[in-house]
Amino acid sequence: MTVGTTKATVVLLCGYYGEDNLGDDALLQVLLEDLPWGCRPLITARNSVSVQPFCADAMVVNRRSIRAVLGSVNRVQAVIFGGGSLLQDSTSQKSLFYYLVLIIWSRCRGRRVFLWGQGLGPLDHRLSRLIVHWVLPLCTSASWRDQRSFDLARRWAPRLPSCIGPDPVWQMPMQSWTGGVSIVLSWRPTPLLDGKGWRGLLSAVDQLASELDAPVHWLAFHQHQDANLLNDLCDLDLVPETLIQRSNTVVPNSIQEVFDAVREARIVLPMRLHALILARLTCCPMAALSYDPKVEAAASMSGVVWSSLRPLPSTDQLITQWRSVLDQPADPNAVQQIRDQASAHAGWLKRHF
Questions:
Q1: What is the rounded distance in angstroms from the CA atom of residue 283 to the CA atom of residue 276?
Q2: What spatial distance separates the first Cα and last Cα of the chain, rounded to whole Å?
Q3: R_g of the chain, CA atoms, integer Å
Q4: What whole-number distance in Å separates Cα of residue 23 and Cα of residue 2?
Q5: Is the pTM of this model over 0.85?
Q6: Chain segment 55-104, per-residue pLDDT in tens
C-alpha cells in the first residue's frame, strides 16, 4: 500500500480488528496491501497498539464505540468492510445491526461503501434476512469469498457490481513445509461437541500421537476463545492422561508465529478457517474439522480432507483419515493457483474504488 501525504483519500476500514483473532489480523494485513494507491486508512480496532504491526502510522477509531465509529464517517471519503462474514447473525444480531447501521449511515452521509472479501450469512432470523436484503443494494461494490454468498447477493442485489474469489487471506505469501515433528491442533470451543464428542475426538488424537510418539501443540488462533481450551477440557476430565503429557498450548502473537508452528507439523488438524488457509499456504499435511460450511468449502477447494463435527465420525474413522494424509504435503502449484484466484479481490477493489 502507498499512502499519499497531502491529497490522500482517507478510507474507513471496518472489521473485527485488534481483538486477538489472528484470522482477522491476517485479513487486515492483506487489505492494507490491496488498498489502491493514495489511500490513508482509518481502522476500526480495539486500540492503536493492536494494528501497529501492520501499519505503524495507522489512524484508529475504537470499534467498540458505535458513536465513535459513526462519527468517523465524516472524516473519510469511503468505507470498506474488510473480510470475514460481517453480515451474519450467528454470532449475534447485535453484531449484524452494528454493521448494517454503519452501512446505512455511511450512505446517508454520501460515502461510498465497499464489501471486500465478504461472506454473506448465515442469517438465521427472518428480520435479519429482510434488513440485509434491503441494505445490500445500498453498497457501491462487493467482492465475495464463496459461491453461496455470491449467488445470494446476486438474487438480493442484482445491480450491485460483484465478483467472487477465494478468501483474501490466500493472497499471503507461501512458505515451505519442513515437517517431521508435531501434531498441531487449531481448535475452538463449539456447541457442536458434547462430552461424548470431545472424548471421541481426543481419543483419536491421543492414539495417533502415541503411535507417532509426537508432541501435540494446541495453537490458540483466537487468544481469548482458544487459549484455555486444553485446560477447560482437562477440568472436565475429557483429556486422556497420556495426551495431557504430550500437549502444550501455543499462543502466537503474529501470523509468522502461526507459520512457524505449522511448518514442522506432521499433520495439522484445524477447525478455524484462517488456520486452515495459513497452514495450506505452508503446504503442510492437513485434515480439517468443520463446524461451519465455510470450513468445508475452503477444505474442499484446497484439496484438504475434512470431517464434520455433526455428526462426528468414529474414533477409528478419524484415525484412518488422518493416517491417509500424514506426512503428505500439498502440491505447491495447486496452492499457487488458489492464490492467483484470490487476487481477484485486490483487482476488483482497484477497478471500482
A1: 10
A2: 14
A3: 21
A4: 23
A5: yes
A6: 777 799 999 999 999 999 999 999 999 988 899 998 889 999 999 999 99
